[in-house]
């Protein structure tokens, strides 16, 4: 596929695009100038010469890629082919330097955008294609189908150019096979799937029946507790605002008493008794059970 000016979705098949005269090819940008891209181009152009009247500009995607392609010998191959090199960075792809097309010139690049003026001149035309198409075009001087150079691409383990029509047919066949298997599986397992779903639904309803009463009771108890707390809090706030002291209620206290066992050992146990309420009569106190007892003054009589 080739994207024609001036949008990436203005595409043509390679058969439709073949033959368009190109003035400049560009292998670059940080997204489409990786080691594998340089490998594809180098294998296609190795031992050949670029077409007369066409410029070939190559820019590694990064300093790291630059070192990789140098170590792999791709710089040497492209230099012998007739390419020109620029250091990694923003260059022809944004029209900063080197590679700005003249008015009316057509550039075939590996960039990912081709809007008007992208390469620095709004009167130039930008076509987008794969690294393999760029290499084939550099050889022939016009947009060319790279599949004729497929033999060069089979020498290494990198991806090769494939027949797109064959790939489409293979995809359709795979989808039909998957649909057939899915239909057959549904036909065979349909009743079992339904049975399993009914079992799950039945168990779920049983769990709900078992725990729903407890959940409802817990909710009612919680509601009662919240209401009681709210009532007590409201009462306390009201007493504070009106200046009336809260009424003291009886409190439960713990009292330790000694108990002598049959063996003579005194054991201690804790029992709960209610605090006594004081009455107005001096020297007399009243127990919780209503009995009145006299108290002995701690002061020594003179």
Q: Can you describe what's shown?
A:
This protein has 302 residues and is of the alpha/beta class. The protein contains six helices and twelve strands. It has helices at 14-17, 35-45, 63-72, 74-81, 131-140, 164-242; strands at residues 2-3, 11-12, 24-27, 55-58, 84-85, 106-109, 125-128, 252-260, 266-274, 277-278, 284-286, 292-294. Strands 5-4-3-6-7 form a five-stranded parallel sheet, with helices on one face. β11 and β12 form a beta hairpin. α2 (35-45) packs across α4 (74-81) and α2 (35-45) packs parallel to α5. The model is unreliable at 157-161, 249-254 and 270-281 (pLDDT under 50).
How is the topology of this model organized?
Layout: E1 2-3, E2 11-12, H1 14-17, E3 24-27, H2 35-45, E4 55-58, H3 63-72, H4 74-81, E5 84-85, E6 106-109, E7 125-128, H5 131-140, H6 164-242, E8 252-260, E9 266-274, E10 277-278, E11 284-286, E12 292-294
Parallel strand pairs: 3-4, 3-6, 4-5, 6-7
Antiparallel strand pairs: 1-2, 8-9, 10-11, 11-12
The first-level CATH class of the domain at 2-160 is given as Alpha Beta
Query: pLDDT below 50 for ≥5 consecutive residues: which ranges?
Result: 157-161, 249-254, 270-281
Tell me, what's the shape? elongated
What is the share of helical residues? 40-55%
Residue share in β-strands: 15-25%
User: What do we call the CATH topology of the domain at 2-160?
Assistant: Aconitase, domain 3
How would you spell out the order of helices and strands? EEHEHEHHEEEHHEEEEE
The main β sheet shows up as:
5 strands, parallel
> How many helices?
6
Strand tally? 12
Q: If strands are numbered along the chain, what order do they take across the biggest sheet?
A: 5-4-3-6-7
User: Going by CATH, what is the homologous superfamily of the domain at 2-160?
Assistant: Aconitase, domain 3
Mean pLDDT: 77
Rounded radius of gyration (Å): 47 Å
Task: Tell me which CATH architecture of the domain at 2-160 applies here.
Answer: 2-Layer Sandwich
Distance between the termini: 124 Å
Structural class: alpha/beta
């Amino acid at each position: 596929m080739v994207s024609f000016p001036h949008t990436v979705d203005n595409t043509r098949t390679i058969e439709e695009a073949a033959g368009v005269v190109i003035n400049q090819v560009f292998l670059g940008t940080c997204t489409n100038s990786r080691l594998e891209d340089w490998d594809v181009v180098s294998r296609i152009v190795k031992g050949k010469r670029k077409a007369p009247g066409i410029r070939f500009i190559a820019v590694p995607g990064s300093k790291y890629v630059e070192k990789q392609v140098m170590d792999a010998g791709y710089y040497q191959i492209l230099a012998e082919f007739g390419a020109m090199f620029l250091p990694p960075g923003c260059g022809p792809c944004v029209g900063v330097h080197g590679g700005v097309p003249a008015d009316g010139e057509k550039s075939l690049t590996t960039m990912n955008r081709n809007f008007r003026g992208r390469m620095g001149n709004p009167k130039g035309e930008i076509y987008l294609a794969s690294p393999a198409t760029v290499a084939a075009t550099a050889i022939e001087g016009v947009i060319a189908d790279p599949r004729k150079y497929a033999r060069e691409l089979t020498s290494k383990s990198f991806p090769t150019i494939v027949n797109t029509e064959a790939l489409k047919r293979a995809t359709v066949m795979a989808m039909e096979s998957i649909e057939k298997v899915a239909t057959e599986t549904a036909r065979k397992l349909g009743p079992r799937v339904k049975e399993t779903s009914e079992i799950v639904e039945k168990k779920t309803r049983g769990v709900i029946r078992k725990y729903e009463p407890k959940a409802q009771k817990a909710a009612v108890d919680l509601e009662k507790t919240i209401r009681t707390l709210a009532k007590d809090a409201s009462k306390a706030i009201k007493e504070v605002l009106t200046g009336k002291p809260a009424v003291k209620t009886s409190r439960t206290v713990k009292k330790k008493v000694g108990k002598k066992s049959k063996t003579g050992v005194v054991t201690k146990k804790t029992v709960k008794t209610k605090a006594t309420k004081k009455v107005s009569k001096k020297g007399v106190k009243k127990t919780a059970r209503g009995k009145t007892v006299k108290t002995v003054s701690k002061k020594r009589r003179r």
